[in-house]
């Protein structure tokens, strides 16, 4: 019986270990999560059965110890499961700030359908806030434009991805992005592409260096 209880805890702990080993996030482990939930329900039932079979005003030490053990197992599994889910949501929120709407496909595929929906809703709320924060502004506030304040505004980039085509920027005008091209642009115009890995930041061009 004790060995089975230890195995219960191992499954929820394994979920957290998977998070630690992953470069970003592991694929959503729906099967193991269901197994942990089943363990929580099973241990909760065992605890209720013990309560129904004994007078709580006069229980033996063995029964009291059993109730405490089942309660600890339920609590440990629940806390591990919530930590797993909460950590994933935090990383998904961070991803929105890092790459904007251009989520790399390999990361998007690691999300559960409900997490994709959460990402969409989070983006909608953030977008609504940025558009209404300064109502009379000509351009909406973009809180995700710069993760850090750049030392200089001009940068040299190399295009790494296919199919970017032409983009219209606020400061650099129309920019043609073809794989292998190197060009000088305002950092604020392509910050989201740098963070998404679509273009590579080659070097910063200081104002006194010229272009």
Query: What proportion of the residues is helical, as a percent range?
Result: 55-70%
Neighbour order of strands in the largest sheet = 4-1-5
Q: How many E strands?
A: 5
The mean pLDDT is: 82
- Described by the principal axes of the CA atoms, the overall outline is elongated
Output the CATH topology of the largest domain: Methane Monooxygenase Hydroxylase, Chain G, domain 1
Number of domains: 2
- The CATH architecture of the largest domain comes to Up-down Bundle
Query: From the alpha-carbon coordinates, what is the Rg to the nearest angstrom?
Result: 26 Å
CATH classification, class level of the largest domain: Mainly Alpha
Order of helices and strands: HHHHHEEEEHE
Number of helices: 6
Secondary structure class reads: alpha+beta
Span between N and C termini? Answer: 73 Å
* Main sheet summary: 3 strands, antiparallel
